[in-house]
């Protein structure tokens, strides 16, 4: 059982995405598969921190990695945005949505 299972799952998933560096990575990857070399150019953090944040996102099931020679391409998993949306609280049907 991992940290994203059970009742704490939605909160844990949102906590993973709430980190500013990981949110920036998700935004970049929402644009399509990106090589780690391009991520290093776009996210101004140390390479070891970039690796750490990518690992956290992979373990949460939000992104996937594919090795291409000595580089790794990262992409947003097909279910990532759906899972993040599902983790947010829903507005009950009988309440008007805020404007």
Structure in a nutshell:
With 99 residues, the chain is of the alpha+beta class. The chain contains five helices and three strands.
Give the N-to-C terminal Cα separation: 39 Å
Number of domains: 1
CATH architecture: Orthogonal Bundle
Class derived from helix and strand content: alpha+beta
Sheet with the most strands, sense and barrel status: 3 strands, antiparallel
Q: CATH class, please?
A: Mainly Alpha
CATH superfamily: Winged helix-like DNA-binding domain superfamily/Winged helix DNA-binding domain
Gyration radius, rounded: 15 Å
Strand order of the largest sheet: 1-3-2
Outline the low-pLDDT stretches: none
Strand content: 5-15%
Helix content: 40-55%
Q: How many helices in DSSP terms? A: 5
Mean pLDDT: 88
Q: Rough shape?
A: elongated
């Amino acid at each position: 059982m991992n940290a994203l299972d059970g009742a704490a799952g939605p909160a844990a998933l949102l906590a993973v995405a709430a980190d500013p560096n990981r949110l920036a990575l998700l935004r970049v990857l929402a644009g399509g598969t990106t090589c780690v070399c391009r991520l290093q150019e776009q996210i101004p953090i140390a390479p070891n921190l970039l690796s750490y944040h990518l690992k956290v996102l992979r373990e949460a099931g939000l992104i996937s990695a594919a090795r291409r020679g000595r580089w790794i391409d990262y992409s947003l998993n097909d279910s990532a945005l759906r899972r993040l949306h599902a983790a947010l609280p829903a507005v009950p049907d009988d309440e008007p949505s805020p404007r």
